[in-house]
Amino acid sequence: MRSMYIWFGITVVVAGILGILLFTPAGAYAKTGWLILLTSPYEQAGSGAGTILVLGDSTGYGTGTRASTESVAGRLGHAYPAYRIENNSVNGRRIAGAQAAVEELSGQYDLIVLQMGANDIIGGRSADAVASDMQQLVTAVKSHATRVVIMTAGNVGGPPRFTGEQAAQYRTVSEAYDVRMRAYASGEADVWFVSLYDDPADDPFVAEPEVYMAWDGLHPTKAGYAVWFQKAEPAFQAALGE
Q: Which residues pair with 86 in a beta bridge?
């Protein structure tokens, strides 16, 4: 009888832990933490063609993939193996954090990839504020780079982690930010903005989250990063002259 109560207690505890992991905000963050442990920012030595810096948040880091080669940076390295790739990406980073990182830069790069902005939107900032900060960041990195490619997670309200009014607000800000940055980049020499925003009706991340979204309901999977890289490839080709 006592062993039965012990096993019942263990079952309750395990069920409680699973409930926390699967159905609560704390569980969502725990899942993201686990995904961070599964990979690391992609870097490569190259063979002297030039140097690329990826300055990013968790999406620059590659969170959601099982191997760093599956991230945008990893796919960029595969496409341009002769280039050295340095990766300064931090999970949770906002644009202000990247601005601080730029102040520590001393080298020169053929290309800097700015892969961030979603955390600013999730933090409740307006499209105008996020776009303004990103444009200031571009100005700052231009003293270290010949060319700049900007990537931001498309519809921040699309991931399964967000629902209802919160998702709708994030979508509205994401769309407005996308419009502002496309207009900005069109008037800047050697600056490319990769539009990752899709209308929800046409967004594969919304249509098939089980394919394109990771376990935490926030970050892309290998397939999700493949979609992003496909959209970014023309900008990389233009920036690197290939």
A: 53
Give the integer Cα–Cα distance in Å for 21 and 130.
31
Model pTM above 0.90: no
The pLDDT mean for the chain works out to 88
SS3 85: strand
CB 82 within 8 A of CB 26: no
From the list 106, 207, 144, 18, the residue with the least C-alpha distance to 227 is: 207
Cβ-contact 113, 52 below 8 angstroms: yes
Instruction: Count the alpha carbons within 13 Å of 208 in the hemisphere toward its beta carbon.
Output: 7
pLDDT at position 123 over 90 = yes
pLDDT given for residue 30 in this prediction: 75
DSSP class of 163: -
pLDDT above 60: residue 4: no
CA distance 79 to 89: 20
Calpha distance 148→127 (Å, rounded): 20
**So what's the architecture of 40-240 in CATH?**
3-Layer(aba) Sandwich (3.40)
- Distance of alpha carbon 49 from alpha carbon 110, whole angstroms: 9
Q: What angle do CA 60, 216, 192 make, to 5 degrees?
A: 25
Residues of the chain with CATH 3.40.50.1110: 40-240
The proportion of the chain whose per-residue pLDDT surpasses 70, expressed as a percent, equals 85
